[in-house]
Amino acid sequence: MKRIAALILVAAVSLTACRGGDTTTDAGGIKTDIGVTKEPCKDAIDKAKGCIYLGIISDLTEGPFKALAVPITDAQKAFWKRVNTAGGIGGYEVDVTTYIRDNKYNPQVHKEVYDQIKGNILALAQTLGSPTTAAILADMKASNIVAAPAAWTSAYAFEDVIIESGANYCIESMNAMDYAADKYKPKSVLSIHYAGDYGDDAAAGAKIAAEKLGMTFSHLKTDSGADKQAGAIAEIIAKKPDLVLVTTGPTELATIVGQAAARGFTGRFIGTSPTWNPALNASAAAPALAALYEQSAPWNNWATNTPGHEAMRKALPGVTPSDGYTSGWVWSYPLKAALAKAAANKDLTRAGLLAAVKSLESVDYEGMLPATAGNYKAGAAGQLKMTAFYKPDKTAPTGGVMVQDLKVGKTAEAYKLEGPCFAKL
C-alpha cells in the first residue's frame, strides 16, 4: 500500500509539472514553457507556426467601464491580428481570443477567472482595473506572468510584471491641476473619486499639486452608481470649490456634473481619463458638460494623425469611433516589443519574457506616444508624464476636441515618484 501511495504521489507530481509547463526548445532554438505551443493557433493565418496564448480579463458585461472595455478588447484583437498578418513573432502567431474572461469589475471575480486561465497563458494582454488587478498581482509576481494593464495607477511603476503605458492617475491629476491653474486660476479644489488604487491615486496627485500651487484641497470618496451620488453633489454645493476633479465612471460623472449644475454650481470640472464616454454628449447632462467640463487623457484621441492611429483605424473599419479602441491599441505595443525581444533572446518562457520587459529602454508606439514611454529598464524614473486635455463636442468622432496637446506640467515635471501616490492621500 505504501508503494502504491508513493506511485500515486509521483504521478500526481508529474501531472502537475506538465500543467505547470516543462521547458522545451523549439526547432528555432527558442525556449518555451507555459502558454506557448508548437501547434498553430485556432484561427492561424500560417498553420506552420506555433501559438503564443495571451489572456484578457476585462469588464465586458455589467461593470462601470463596460462601454470602454468592449472596444479596448476589440482593439486588442485587431492589434494582434495585424501582428499575425505581418508574420507573427519568432515563428509564432498570437492568440488573444481563446482566454478572454469577464471580471464584471469585481476583484473576486477577476481572481477567479485569472485562476481559470493562468495555467494556459504566457502573459496577459489586458488586465482591466486597478483594484481588480491588485487581486492577482501577488500571484502574477510569483508566477512571472507579465501583463499589460487597462489602468494607470502609480503603483505599476514599481512592479516589473506590469508594462504600463501613459501617465498614471497621480501624474495626470497633477497635470490637470497645472492646466486649471494656468487657465482658470482656482483657489480651491475638491476631488470626488472612487475608493482604491484608481480614485485614491488621482486624488493624491491633486492633493500634492494643490500644496505646491497654494490651493485649498479636500476630497470625498463615492460609490459606483448614479443613485449613490447625493453625497458628492451635496459636498460640491456646500463647499463651492472653484475646481472639481472627478475620478469615477461615466455614469457617475454625468450625474454629478448634471445635478450640481442644475443646483446652480458654476465651477469647473475635469475628469480623469476613464470617466469619459462619448455617449454622455447625448445624455441629459450634455449641456452642463459642454459648459463646465474638460477631460484629461494619457494620449491623443481616435482621430489623431500618427502612423499608429492610422493603422488602428484601418484595422477597425466600420466601428463607431471610441477612445476605448485607442487605449486598447496603445496598451498592446509594449507587450509586442517584449515578446519580440524575448524571441530574439531565444527565451519565450515566462521568466524570459519578464527579463525582456526589464531590459526594454524604448517601445515603438508608431507615434502614438514617444518611444521613451517604453523605458521599463529605468523603473519609476522612466515614467511618462504627459497629459492632453479635451472638451466635449458632439461633432467630434469620440465626443471631444483637443484644447491642449500632450504636455508635462511644472508640478509633475518636478515630482519624483518614490512610491504609490495613493499612500499619501
Beta-strand share of residues: 15-25%
Binned, the helix content reads 40-55%
Order of strands, widest sheet: 10-9-11-12-13-15-16
The helix count comes to 13
What is the alpha-carbon Rg in Å? 22 Å
- Overall CATH class of the largest domain: Alpha Beta
Just name the CATH architecture of the largest domain. Answer: 3-Layer(aba) Sandwich
CATH topology (fold) name of the largest domain: Rossmann fold
Question: Which homologous superfamily in CATH is the superfamily of the largest domain?
Answer: Response regulator
Give the rounded overall mean pLDDT: 94
Attribute tags:
alpha/beta; disordered N terminus; 425 residues; Rossmann fold; 2 domains; Branched-chain amino acid ABC transporter substrate-binding protein; single chain; 16 strands; seven-stranded mixed sheet; six-stranded mixed sheet
Question: What is the secondary structure topology, with strand pairs?
Answer:
Layout: H1 2-20, E1 24-25, E2 31-32, E3 36-37, E4 50-58, H2 66-85, E5 92-95, E6 100-102, H3 107-117, E7 123-128, H4 130-143, E8 147-150, H5 169-183, E9 188-193, H6 197-213, E10 216-221, H7 230-239, E11 243-247, H8 250-262, E12 268-271, H9 286-292, E13 293-297, H10 307-315, H11 323-344, E14 347-348, H12 350-359, E15 387-392, E16 400-407, H13 410-414
Parallel strand pairs: 2-14, 4-5, 4-6, 4-7, 7-8, 9-10, 9-11, 11-12, 12-13
Antiparallel strand pairs: 1-2, 3-4, 13-15, 15-16
Helix pairs in contact: 2-11, 3-4, 5-6, 7-8, 8-9, 11-12
